[in-house]
């Protein structure tokens, strides 16, 4: 379960 | 995933619709300058990672550059009407009366309260996400005040709303397939989609069922 900034979305 | 791609494409389409119509009809009737300026600010504060070494993909990079450039271009295009068509510009300013400092202040507070890390980039990223969720309000306010919807603004807002709607399914998809969730983006995204839900109902009545009615 990954929570947090991937910021790979626009 | 498909939801995300179609969401992004719908976002692209909304900008395309706006740019094409303004350029081809030379009319800005019904467009909120404030909403467009807020979107430019949203992308300026969100895509600062373009200037860091945070690389996602070529797709991601090109889309960011496009959204950044196009949002600034729209603001410049609208500003040109100040001299090109002062009457139309003045009419827009007179109708565009939503008090955006509440939105800016609220987003700043939300950004300071809810963020992934207490760094300038992360706080600005969070600020941009919250601001995007409410940036359409001046436009919706203008529509409801004038009581008539230009086909331009109606299709534009529909495409934007569709983009947010598809992103919610994208998050559900990612939660299931990648076990990944970004709480800030999800909560703000739901807020944003809720803002549009009333508009979707009007769009359904007006466009799909063909009622040439007014906005309540």
Features:
heterodimer; A: 10 residues; mainly beta; 0% helix; elongated; B: 216 residues; mainly alpha; 77% helix
Total helical elements of chain B: 9
Greatest interface and its participating residue counts? A-B, 10 and 24 residues
Percent of residues in helices of chain B comes to over 70%
- How far apart lie the N and C ends of chain A? 21 Å
Please identify the oligomeric state. Answer: heterodimer
Mean pLDDT rating of chain B:
90
| N-end to C-end Cα span of chain B | 37 Å
| Number of DSSP helical runs of chain A | 0
Low-confidence stretches of chain A: none
Give the tally of β-strands of chain B. 1
The proportion of residues forming helix of chain A, as a percent range, comes to under 10%
Q: Which of globular, elongated, flat, extended, rod-shaped describes the shape of chain B?
A: globular
Tell me the total number of β-strands of chain A.
Answer: 1
Walk me through this protein's architecture.
- The complex is a heterodimer of chains A (10) and B (216).
- With 10 residues, chain A is mostly beta strands.
- Chain A has one strand spanning 2-3.
- Chain B is built from nine helices and one strand, in the order H-H-H-H-H-H-H-H-E-H.
- Chain B is globular.
- Helices cover 77% and strands 1% of the residues of chain B.
- The longest helix of chain B has 27 residues, at 58-84.
- The model of chain B has no long low-confidence stretch (mean pLDDT 90).
- In chain B, helix 1 runs parallel beside helix 3 (58-84), helix 2 runs antiparallel to helix 3 and helix 8 packs across helix 9 (183-208).
- Classes of the chains: A mainly beta (10), B mainly alpha (216).
- At the A-B interface, strand 1 of A face helix 1, helix 3 and strand 1 of B.
- Strand 1 of chain A pairs parallel with strand 1 of chain B, so a sheet runs across the interface.
């Amino acid at each position: 379960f990954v929570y947090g900034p991937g910021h790979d979305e626009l | 995933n498909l939801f995300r791609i179609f969401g992004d494409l719908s976002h692209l389409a909304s900008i395309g619709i706006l740019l094409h119509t303004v350029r081809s009809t030379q009319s800005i009737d019904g467009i909120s300058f404030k909403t467009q300026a807020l979107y430019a600010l949203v992308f300026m504060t969100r895509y600062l990672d373009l200037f860091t070494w945070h690389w996602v993909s070529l797709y991601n990079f090109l889309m960011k550059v496009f959204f950044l450039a196009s949002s600034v271009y729209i603001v410049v295009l609208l500003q040109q009407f100040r001299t090109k068509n002062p009457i139309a510009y003045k009419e827009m300013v007179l109708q565009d009366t939503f008090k955006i400092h509440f939105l800016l202040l609220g987003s700043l507070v939300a950004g300071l309260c809810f963020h992934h890390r207490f760094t300038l980039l992360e706080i600005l990223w969070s600020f941009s996400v919250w601001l995007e969720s409410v940036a359409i309000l001046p436009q919706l306010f203008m529509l409801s005040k004038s009581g008539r919807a230009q086909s331009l603004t109606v299709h534009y807002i529909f495409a934007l709303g569709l983009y947010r709607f598809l992103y919610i399914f994208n998050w559900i998809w990612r939660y299931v397939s990648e076990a990944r969730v970004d709480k800030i983006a999800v909560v703000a995204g739901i807020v944003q989609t809720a803002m549009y839900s009333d508009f979707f109902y009007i769009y359904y009545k007006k466009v799909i069922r063909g009622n040439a009615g007014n906005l309540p």
